[in-house]
Write a structure and sequence with these properties.
Blueprint lengths: L1 E8 L7 H14 L9 E11 L6 E10 L23 E5 L3 H12 L3 E5 L5 H14 L33 H10 L19 H14 L3 E3 L2 E10 L5 E10 L5 E5 L2 E4 L6 H10 L4 E3 L2 E10 H8 L17 E4 L2 E9 L2 E5 L9 E5 L7 E10 L6 H9 L6 H16 L5 E5 H6 L15 E3 L2 H4 L2 H17 L9 E6 L6 E3 L11 E2 L1 E3 L10 H19 L1
Parallel strand pairs: 4-5, 4-10, 5-6, 8-22, 10-23, 18-19
Antiparallel strand pairs: 1-3, 2-3, 7-8, 8-9, 11-21, 12-17, 12-20, 13-14, 14-17, 15-16, 18-20
Length: 541
């Protein structure tokens, strides 16, 4: 007999199969099913932590086998069958982030050749450029935390949690990550993550698989223009792209049966390129901006576990906060328990911060973005007029985001970021000293409360007060705000057909992932890339 049930155990019992079997038998008895612990085997389907009311519990969703072997399910959940590309059909994929990589793998299920064009470098070379940001204040605009093999997710926490159940099969994405080297825990954890120390090897394994089946990768190759022709039913049709090699400065063209645009949320030049050819293909959307808040890890653990992390059996604590201030959302994003704040600028004239964690999540700090919802109507008139003057009104949010990132740079020093103690931010005073931080380029004391845009500053202020009501101690002198967090999502969406996934103004162009404005995060972007590739497969049959 096979059934599913929920078992609640103590954290210290997680590795004790007999204790879990005993709880399983108790739950089965409630269902009028009699079984002895030795007759039971189980698989963990999902694992989460319940730390409410000061009582720490592990909640396990289990598949239970009574006098039956788990081998009965060994043929379920198989990986896709990837085929050798026959070379008769090819698809250009601009960008090698999760959307691009999973689109490539999906195309190979049909034997279609993916040609991946990546402006940045491979992971090994990219690490050198990322190190230079912290040690030399040098930002390579095409090889950094945002651009390069694997995209922005490669050097991040590798969070695989998503609510996008309707977008595709989440479990399939997790199984593929596991097949390429991610820990099996991602298949069962409620909030799975891989870790920045493990992601590069996984991305490399994906690349090797794609190449072994006939796919191509072109690193240091930046798309500079589209090759377009009139479409049969009006508008434009893309037949290829023009690129430049960042090292040799040589120009090259690539043609294919379709183009997947998987460039991520930071490739502003791609939006300007689309605006040049087809401004109707863009629309303004809601995004968010704010700061990173960093606390000592032990403090966040104490708050979330009510000081009761018994014998250290519980993982580093996470949090997720949200509130409404003046009809706009204020919320935490990309929380990195036991992590680091990192310089995520994609150009030398800006400062942008983000967060990441290693697999063990064991640094001295925990951090998260705390951001304010920004709707198109919130964009200052200056930037709305600038966008209209440049010929595409829907780029106003992008101009505003760029301006805020440049202002942050002016308030910092090199890549040393402007920062303020949280308590001083709320008291509207200068921080005469700053706590030790994980942000390696360094911090510069600055009155964030004075220069952050007023509609962001006042909502952040109230938001922190609201969060502290449910997490006493969150507001403290040891917490530091680091500016600015602006890349939670893009301020512009590339309009595409809901059924075909094609760009409305440029046929044969398939926007996918975070840069398209239709996904956010690794898993949802991977599924979006798969969906775009699936539409191309259907069209090319």
């Amino acid at each position: 007999m096979i059934t599913e049930l929920t078992a609640i155990i103590k954290p210290e019992e997680e590795k004790n199969s007999f204790a879990i079997n005993r709880v399983i038998c108790e739950e089965l008895f409630k269902k009028n099913i009699k079984a002895k612990p030795q007759e039971v085997q189980f698989q963990i389907l999902k694992k989460s932590i319940d730390a409410r009311h000061g009582r720490q519990k592990l909640v396990l969703r289990l598949r239970v086998f009574i006098n039956e072997s788990p081998d009965a399910l060994k043929n379920q959940g198989k990986l896709p069958e990837w085929k050798n590309a026959d070379g008769n059909k090819s698809v250009i994929i601009i960008g090698s982030g999760p959307a691009g990589l999973f689109a490539a793998l999906k195309l190979l299920e049909a034997g279609i050749k993916p040609v991946i064009i990546e402006r940045g470098k491979d992971t090994s070379s990219r690490k050198v450029d990322i190190a230079a940001i912290s040690t030399k204040d040098i930002v390579d605009q095409d090889s950094n935390y945002c651009f390069g093999e694997g995209g922005a997710g490669t050097f991040s926490d590798g969070k695989l949690y998503t609510r996008s159940n309707k977008r595709g099969d989440i479990s399939k994405i997790l199984k593929i990550f596991n097949a390429f080297g991610a820990d099996e825990k991602i298949l069962t954890d409620a909030h799975p993550h891989i870790g920045t120390d493990r992601l590069p090897k996984i991305i490399n394994a994906m690349r090797e698989k794609i190449i072994s089946l006939g796919g191509e990768f072109h690193f240091n190759t930046k798309c500079t223009d589209f090759i377009l022709e009139p479409a049969k039913i009006g508008g434009l049709k893309i037949t290829g792209i023009i690129t430049i090699n960042n090292e040799t400065k040589t120009e090259e063209t690539f043609t294919g049966n379709a183009v997947i645009l998987a460039t991520g949320h930071s490739a502003s030049d791609i939006y300007f390129l689309i605006a040049k050819h087809s401004p109707v293909s863009l629309e303004a959307k809601t995004f968010a901006a704010g700061v990173r808040v960093e606390h000592p890890r032990e403090l966040i653990d104490a708050i979330q576990y009510h000081g009761q992390n018994i014998n250290g059996h519980l993982p580093t604590a996470e949090y997720r906060f949200t509130t409404q201030v003046e009809d706009r959302g204020v919320y935490s994003f990309c929380m990195c328990p036991g992590g680091f704040v990192v310089p995520s600028s994609s150009g030398p004239d800006e400062i942008v911060v983000n967060g990441m964690s290693a697999a063990k999540r064991n640094s001295k700090w925990s951090n998260a973005a705390i951001v304010v919802e920004i709707r198109p109507e919130d964009i200052p008139e200056t930037f709305q007029q600038q966008a209209k003057t440049e010929g595409c009104k829907d780029l106003a949010g992008l101009y505003f985001r760029t301006s805020l990132e440049k202002l942050t740079k002016e308030k910092g020093k090199g890549q040393s970021a402007p920062a303020q103690r949280l308590s001083d931010f709320l008291d509207h005073k200068e921080s005469t000293s700053l706590p030790v931080s994980s942000y390696t380029p360094g911090l510069v004391s600055s009155r964030l409360d004075k220069w952050l845009p007023a509609h962001i500053e006042r909502r952040l202020e109230q938001g922190f007060k609201d969060f502290n009501k449910n997490a006493r101690g969150f507001i403290c002198n040891d917490a530091v705000l680091i500016a600015s967090e602006t890349r939670t999502s893009t301020p512009v969406r590339i309009v595409r057909n809901k059924e075909t996934f094609e760009c409305e103004g440029i046929k044969n162009l398939y926007p996918a992932g975070e840069g398209s404005g239709y996904s956010g995060g690794i898993v949802s972007s991977a599924m979006d890339g798969e969906n775009a590739a699936e539409k191309i497969i259907e069209k090319l049959k």
